[in-house]
């Protein structure tokens, strides 16, 4: 890591791979021999269209996305898709199933309820969102337009270790905080969507991966830039896309590929998570409330035995070059987000800091 930089544990916008930022910096004033920044180039230019297509092609390779899926680069963030999905996949009066496992699935339900009847098949709120439901412990409504779940709940650090089996009911996944973190079988999903600003690039873009048979059913009220059919037909350029973000996503996808793809990312992420949870579990001073089989590889919330020291912990960590460790404002405590770009050395530096903090304050 460049000595100018810190280990940034933010949940998003989050740390990005340094080689990607270095390349973007080197090309900032003169992209592709154009004498312009990529930000100044027309999205209709041959060069940018090629750059956008290459980003998509690389993502397809990295995630092994089957040919019968479209990849869309949309605006409005992942939150936008809480409305975009029901607008595209349901008709008025339809029912939609949800797995309520955290704050983000709760927001998804609230938004979707404007368009459909929502059914939470499980509600993990009474247990403070500390686990995911075991596979097979809930009954999918066969008439549901789709089932929406959140494979990784960013705020509470709760992650599914399995993909729910929904039979013929399309499975919709909000993969915002875990996309590209490990291998996955895209063919099990109807729609995958993910905000870019955690494992993919800067904010301002939402990647939507949608199976062909689910395209073309949008309600007439659907804004055109969110209509999957219109956007697929226009290669996501019905209107002006966030060009810089799209370019940077392409660089990140190449970086993931160069690291060895999702298998290598998964091994690295597991090693990072194991190190941090192992340390927390072995300490009497730190604790993580999540059931071990439901713990996130990406977001690790933790508490200290003396909560009055939370602010001191966060401030001293920042002084040591370990930034953005405060927990989400709704839950308090601490949270370390350890996305793809966080190296094992960063996690090790955090563990060393935690040990020292416990020694002096424990
Ligand atoms: N879903 C999850 C799991 C998230 O973590 C977030 C943002 O942090 C969102 C949705 C909302 O994404 P956006 O801010 O891109 O709209």
UniProtKB/TrEMBL annotation:
Pyridoxal 5'-phosphate binds at residues 104, 154, 174, 197, 239-240. It is an enzyme of class 2 (transferase). Its main location: cytoplasm. It catalyses: O-phospho-L-serine + 2-oxoglutarate = 3-phosphooxypyruvate + L-glutamate; 4-(phosphooxy)-L-threonine + 2-oxoglutarate = (R)-3-hydroxy-2-oxo-4-phosphooxybutanoate + L-glutamate. Its cofactor is pyridoxal 5'-phosphate. GO terms for biological process: L-serine biosynthetic process; pyridoxine biosynthetic process. It is found in: Cytoplasm. Homodimer. This is Phosphoserine aminotransferase. The gene is serC.
């Amino acid at each position: 890591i460049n000595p100018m930089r810190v280990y940034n544990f933010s949940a998003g916008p989050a740390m990005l791979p340094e080689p990607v930022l270095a390349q973007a910096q080197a090309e900032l004033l003169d992209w592709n021999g154009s004498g312009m920044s990529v930000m100044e180039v027309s999205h209709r230019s041959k060069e940018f269209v090629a750059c956008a297509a290459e980003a998509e092609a690389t993502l397809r390779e990295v995630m092994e996305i089957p040919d019968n899926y479209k990849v869309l680069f949309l605006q409005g963030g992942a939150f936008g898709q809480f409305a975009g999905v029901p607008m595209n996949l349901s008709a008025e009066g339809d029912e939609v199933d949800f797995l309520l496992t955290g704050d983000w699935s709760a927001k998804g339900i609230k938004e979707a309820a404007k368009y459909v009847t929502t059914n939470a098949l499980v509600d993990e709120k009474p247990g403070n969102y500390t686990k995911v439901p075991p596979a097979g412990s809930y009954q999918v409504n066969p008439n549901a337009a789709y089932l929406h779940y959140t494979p990784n709940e960013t705020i509470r650090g709760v992650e599914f270790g399995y993909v729910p089996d929904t039979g013929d009911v399309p499975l919709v996944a909000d993969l915002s905080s875990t996309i590209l973190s490990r291998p996955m079988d895209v063919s099990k999903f109807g729609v995958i969507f993910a905000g870019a600003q955690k494992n993919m690039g800067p904010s301002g873009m939402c990647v939507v991966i949608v199976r062909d048979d689910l395209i073309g059913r949008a309600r007439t009220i659907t804004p055109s830039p969110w209509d999957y059919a219109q956007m697929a037909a226009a290669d996501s350029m019905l209107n002006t896309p966030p060009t810089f973000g799209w370019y940077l996503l392409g660089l990140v996808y190449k970086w993931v590929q160069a690291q060895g793809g999702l298998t290598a990312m998964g091994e690295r992420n597991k090693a990072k998570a194991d190190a941090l949870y192992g340390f927390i579990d072995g300490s009497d001073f730190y604790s993580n409330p999540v059931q071990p089989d439901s713990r996130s590889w990406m977001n690790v919330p933790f508490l200290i035995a003396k909560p009055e020291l939370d602010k001191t912990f966060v401030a001293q960590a920042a002084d040591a070059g370990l930034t953005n460790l405060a927990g989400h404002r709704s839950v308090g405590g601490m949270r370390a987000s350890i996305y793809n770009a966080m190296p094992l050395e960063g996690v090790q530096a955090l563990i060393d800091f935690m040990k020292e903090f416990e020694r002096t304050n424990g």
